[in-house]
Amino acid sequence: MHFIWYNPDLREYKYGNVADFNNEIERAYNPRAYTVLMEFDKNAEHLACKIIQQLNIANTQSIVGIAS
Fold it and tell me: Residue ranges of the alpha helices (H) in 1-68?
């Protein structure tokens, strides 16, 4: 099982398996702020990568827009 989650410490969306997610939470400043957005089976990695790219682009643009 794989997830897309938001990492509030880095202000970016991430993709990985359960172990990746748990490792990030263990190192997190505020683990309760982490949110799993989507869940995928292993065969959907290509789709998940496309989704995460778009989420991070949108996230970057909204941060730039707010700062302007």
Answer: 18-27, 45-67
Whole-angstrom distance, CA of residue 4 vs CA of residue 13? 7
Predicted structure pTM score = 0.76
What pLDDT, in 10s, does the model give residues 15-32?
999 999 999 999 999 999
CA torsion through residues 49, 55, 58, 60, sign:
negative
**21: nearest Cα among 38, 36, 43:** 36
**d(C-alpha 24, C-alpha 16), whole Å:** 10
Instruction: Give pLDDT, residue 5.
Output: 94
Instruction: Report the 10 Å Cβ neighbour count for 50.
Output: 10
- Tokens 């998940």 belong to 48
Distance CA 56, CA 45 (A): 16
